[in-house]
Amino acid sequence: MSDRPSDRPMLEIEGLHKYFGDNHVLRGIDLKIAAGEVVCIIGPSGSGKSTLLRCINHLEVAEKGRIRVDGQLAYCTEKDGDVRPLSNRAISAVRAQLGMVFQQFNLFPHLTAMGNIIEAPVHVLRKPKELARRRGRELLAQVGLADKENSYPEELSGGQQQRVAIARALAMDPKAMLLDEVTSALDPELVAEVLAAVRDLAARGMTMLIVTHEMNFARQVSSRVIFMDRGVIVEEGTPARIFGAPREPRTRDFLRTVVDR
After folding, report:
1. How far is it, in rounded angstroms, from Cα 25 to Cα 54?
2. Residues 32/23, Cβ–Cβ less than 8 Å
3. For 131-161, how does the pLDDT look when each residue is reduced to its tens digit (9 = 90+)?
4. In angstroms, rounded to a whole number, what is the distance separating the alpha carbons of residues 88 and 67?
5. Residue 210, CA atoms < 13 Å, CB-side half-sphere
6. Are 103 and 182 spatial neighbours (Cβ–Cβ below 8 Å)?
7. What whole-number distance in Å separates Cα of residue 24 and Cα of residue 123?
8. Quick check: 143 and 193 in contact, CB under 8 A?
9. Which of 89, 99, 217, 244 is the Cys-Cys partner for 177 at CB 3.0 to 4.6 Å?
10. Taking Cα atoms as reference points, which of 138, 143, 179 lies closest to residue 163?
């Protein structure tokens, strides 16, 4: 592989291990995600899927392993075998490159939809407020909420709040998006509108790593599907192969249990 930027993975995880006490949650994860690729992670509860996203975004600190964003070592420096953590400011700069959307919407209740979207660009990236507002309006329109600029979270449905959360993450102009079960807190009738917003991001070429329990969505939107269980990647492949002809018994057993297969 050459050093040209186009040849580098947008996200690269190497030998990642994470413990919670005696619980070995991630057991040596190796994963590369190309620019523009949409990778969906499926698997049973407790398999380490959400912990993997949280380690990539440094919400949890892995005990061992390397994470690279667009070819650059994230969260630490390494020289002659000596590994040292970056400063908090440098870590924040890396995290700003990764948009994270959670199961819960986590919107500021005292801010409007626009206020939530421009908060970080103005106070973290130091963007002029009017420039941030202009970008905010574009993003609200992109997620189908152009008329909700002045609405507060309590005035929005769960699906609308989640779409504001997606727009808020996009406002930081991330290199990749990490989505953690973004429909799990929604009533069934609201799921489709959020999945439509994510499909639109995929069509626009956004690099995404998505943890989801929506099998049909994973089948339709992803370029690659990863099945995790017990802290390891058991199997990965195209949606057609994983859902149509899984090779590993653990993958087949899991897929037999999901209702929308």
Report:
1. 12
2. no
3. 999 999 999 999 999 999 999 999 999 999 9
4. 16
5. 29
6. yes
7. 37
8. no
9. 99
10. 143
